[in-house]
Write a structure and sequence with these properties.
Length: 441
């Protein structure tokens, strides 16, 4: 690996040519991390193993900031301060074009599992080089550096760039995928309405940023709770991105439901297919045992205990997050990361014949009679091109319909709570009393 040029970031002054105008700089200079005149700080590094111009910048940013603003001050991070000429090596590879993937809440627990899966090739494939754009906050900045260091030390061949920052207008530039995980957890005594407002503001800002700086066809997976309504807020604030490109994660619920059905039927979980989660990622979600199949047969033909299906199974899936918190003392992180991988792969690989997957997507002409203009989990199929179609041939009986209506009512109430964040006037927040996230008691 030839070092074509010594970057002043790391170089002791004695190593620089006497005539060099370059001078050594500390990496991540602490003085640059102070809030600027606008009370905000921004720091981005663009490390790259392949061509390695590592940059960072600190500048005042406004919400109206436009695409043409690009990074031009340089800084660097660790190994990425070196400049390599890998052209010859690159020519022997049959890799696809680099993709840019943003992850928010990047210093959080779910991300700590997800990022290493993304970098390994497990998600986008072994021939897909990737640039990771990590969004954190002022309080997590040091932790973000730690994440970047661990990514460096992992020597992933496909990981070509890692950048970290706290301004979504920086971090989301040109991203083709955005996984939005960062969100404030509900604390003691906090109303769900407060959570909707606090987290809603985060997703409104991130939607605006995506709208301006992301790739126009960016696919967005919202994980931070309450994820359905956060996804709605995000897409409403990003009118130039197709609403269809936004997903709220209900894949973890699908996986949980498959596991419970397999357990009851005494089969391995790969035998369970056609599993729909309808509605909200909350305890009103509806795991659909009517249309699901075990080894190709309707679940009700395999599991004869229909009382169990209606009562225990449904509640178990709805409250699985809470049960896990009781055991672990924290919410599902590893299995959530796995389900994010599943969700992305379901969009980037063709859905197996006859099967489908669940994702909470924007209701716009849905065939099930569900209210339009919300983000609702439904059965989807994909050709593997990043897009999806809703599955039409599902049966909805009275049992399912009643429960779907309850989840729909909850989402419509959540939507009224965030009217001020989606351009629909002032909000009126009256939530049904039992609305909880899966992890809440
Ligand atoms: N949809 C689903 O299936 C699931 C969703 N979740 C949700 O995912 C989210 C993240 O979970 P997890 O990674 O375990 O949580 P962590 O608390 O480990 O990390 C979350 C990150 O969110 C950011 N954050 C916290 N408070 C705020 C705030 N006020 N403003 C902005 N960002 C904030 C923090 O980043 P920073 O310090 O950089 O701001 C933190 O690193 C939660 O909302 C959780 O409820 C969890 C499991 C399943
Ligand atoms: O409520 C939470 O934070 C955790 C969660 O969504 C889940 O486990 O499904």
């Amino acid at each position: 690996m030839a070092v074509a040029e010594l970057n002043p970031c790391f170089a002791p002054k004695s190593l620089l040519h006497p005539s060099s105008s370059l001078s050594p700089r500390p990496c991540f200079p602490t003085h640059l991390r102070q809030p600027n005149a606008f009370g905000r700080i921004s720091y981005t590094s663009y490390p790259s193993i392949s061509c390695s111009i590592a940059t960072s910048k600190v500048k005042a940013l406004t919400v109206e900031r436009q695409k043409e603003e690009v990074n031009n001050e340089e800084d660097c991070y660790g190994i990425f301060c070196l400049t390599y000429d890998l052209k010859a090596e690159e020519e022997t590879k049959t890799w696809k074009k680099l993709i840019n993937v943003a992850v928010s809440g990047a210093a959080g627990t779910i991300s700590n599992h997800l990022l290493f899966k993304l970098a390994s090739g497990e998600v986008f494939g072994p021939d897909q080089p990737i640039a990771l754009k990590l969004l954190g906050s002022e309080r997590s900045f040091q932790a973000l550096e730690g994440v970047a260091m661990e990514l460096e030390d992992s020597l992933f061949p496909l990981l070509r760039e890692v950048s970290i920052g706290i301004d979504p207008y920086d971090v989301f530039q040109r991203v083709e995928w955005a996984v939005l995980i960062g969100a404030k957890p509900r604390g003691p005594g906090m109303e769900r309405a407060d959570l909707l407002d606090i987290n809603g503001k985060i997703f409104a800002q991130q939607g605006k940023a995506l709208n301006v700086v992301a790739s126009p066809n960016v696919k967005v997976i919202v994980v931070g709770n309450p994820c359905n309504t956060n996804a709605l807020i995000c897409l409403k604030n990003a009118p130039s991105i197709p609403a269809k490109n936004f997903h709220a994660l209900t894949r973890l619920d699908e996986n949980r439901a498959k596991c419970q059905l397999a357990l009851k039927a005494g089969v391995f979980y790969d035998k369970v297919s056609n599993m729909t989660i309808w509605g909200n990622h909350s305890t009103t979600q509806v795991p659909d045992f009517l249309n699901a199949r075990i080894d190709g047969f309707p679940v009700k033909d395999v599991i004869k205990d229909h009382k169990w299906l209606q009562e225990e199974f449904t509640e178990k899936v709805q409250k699985r997050g809470g049960a896990l918190i009781q055991k672990w003392g924290r919410s599902s992180a590893a299995s959530t990361a796995v389900s994010i991988v599943d969700a992305i792969r379901s969009l980037t690989t063709p859905t197996p014949e006859g099967d489908w997957f669940s994702s909470a997507v924007y209701t716009n002409g849905n065939p099930y009679g569900i209210a339009e203009d919300i983000v609702f989990s439904m059965p989807c199929r994909s050709k593997g091109n990043g897009d999806y179609e809703l599955v039409k041939d599902v049966i909805i009986d009275d049992y399912l319909r009643q429960r779907i209506i309850k989840s729909e009512a909850e989402l419509l109430a959540e939507k009224r709570c965030v009217a001020h964040l989606i351009g629909e006037g002032s909000s009126v927040c009256e939530l049904p009393g039992d609305t909880t996230l899966p992890g809440e008691k």
